Amino acid sequence: MIIDNPAFDYDSSGVKYSGHRRSDPRIERYVNSALENAHTILNVGAGAGSYEPADRYVIAVEPSAAMRAQRITNGKVPAIDAKADDLPFDDNSFDASMAMVTVHHWSDMDKGLKELRRVTKAQVIVMTFDPDELDNFWNAKYFPELIEVEKARYPSIEFIEKSIGGKCETIPLEIPFDCVDGFQEAFYGRPEAFLEREVRQAQSAWGFLPEGKEEELVQRLSDDLDSGEWDKKYGHFRKQPTFTCALRLIIAKP
Q1: One digit per residue, pLDDT tens: the chain, 254 residues?
Q2: What is the radius of gyration, based on Cα positions, of the chain?
Q3: Are 188 and 243 within 8 A, CB to CB?
Q4: Whole-model pTM above 0.85?
Q5: Is the dihedral of CA 49, 132, 200, 138 positive or negative?
Q6: For the purposes of burial, counting CB atoms within 10 Å of the CB of 7, is it exposed (0-12), middle (13-18) or buried (19 or more)?
Q7: What is the phi-psi region of residue 36: left when phi exceeds 0, alpha when psi lies from -120 to 50, beta otherwise?
Q8: Is 250 helix (H, G, I), strand (E, B) or coil?
């Protein structure tokens, strides 16, 4: 599958993104640990402000007006209207930089990642999904077309590491059962969430499906939930306290 423009249009969709995509405190601990003792932090593709540390100096970059407005509503620092591949900062301006589940939206991922390294003295932190691991979640059986969209948009872990350069460590992240950050894998044991339109609207991949396909896929899951077929195959996830699949935290040091 080829996607010409990987960026989701949040400005025209009217998505209440911050209502479903919030910092999960368990995942946030990984991010804070990776930031170490950095005092000045750049958050690129900052969205509504998830995972920004409240106790440090943060500069946010976000090209979507809708997202910038949600930041103000949520009490986050205002964001600069700019894009990852042309950051308006001098070299080595920040102790650390972060990009939280955003790289797949960038039109020039390689240039954007190199820009992160250019403006950062120490660690660059990228939270993303490994496209090679996306098939290991049950939704690949119900939403195969959606997963193909995801695979086409997410860069490989190797691509990210090479673009940033330096010494990279990639950590698989454990997702808690009651994760409050509403990406797809967050609902591994709560499949009914996918039947809610607002939940899906906060997961950008749905917006790339052909007309009518979203309803078809959701109906497929709904039918199996009603019949008990989903629970027969995957019900053990309802009792599984954590799930580790494709979510990764890449820590790149110069």
Answers
A1: 544 555 555 545 545 554 568 999 999 999 999 999 999 999 999 999 999 999 999 999 999 999 999 899 888 999 999 999 999 999 999 999 999 999 999 999 999 999 999 999 999 999 999 999 999 999 999 999 999 999 999 999 999 999 999 999 999 999 999 999 999 999 999 999 999 999 999 999 999 999 999 999 999 999 999 999 999 999 999 999 999 999 999 999 99
A2: 18
A3: yes
A4: yes
A5: negative
A6: middle
A7: left
A8: strand
In a domain, 1, yes or no: no
Strands 175-176 vs 40-44: parallel, antiparallel or unpaired: unpaired
Collapsing DSSP to helix, strand or coil, 112 comes out as helix
CA-CA-CA-CA torsion sign (6, 136, 171, 163): negative
Structure tokens at 186: 């967050």
* Six token digits for residue 217: 């896929």
The answer as to whether 4 is a domain residue is no
Q: Which domain holds residue 130?
A: 10-253
Q: Are 44 and 98 within 8 A, CB to CB?
A: yes
Residue written as tokens 């306290």? 241
DSSP summary character for residue 163: H
Cα 55 from Cα 101, distance rounded (Å): 21
3, part of any domain? no
**Residue 92 and residue 122: Cα distance in Å, rounded?**
8
Q: Which of 77, 71, 36, 81 is nearest to 59 (CA)?
A: 77
* Structural domain count of the chain: 1
Count CB neighbours of 238 within 10 A: 13
Residue written as tokens 């500069």? 59
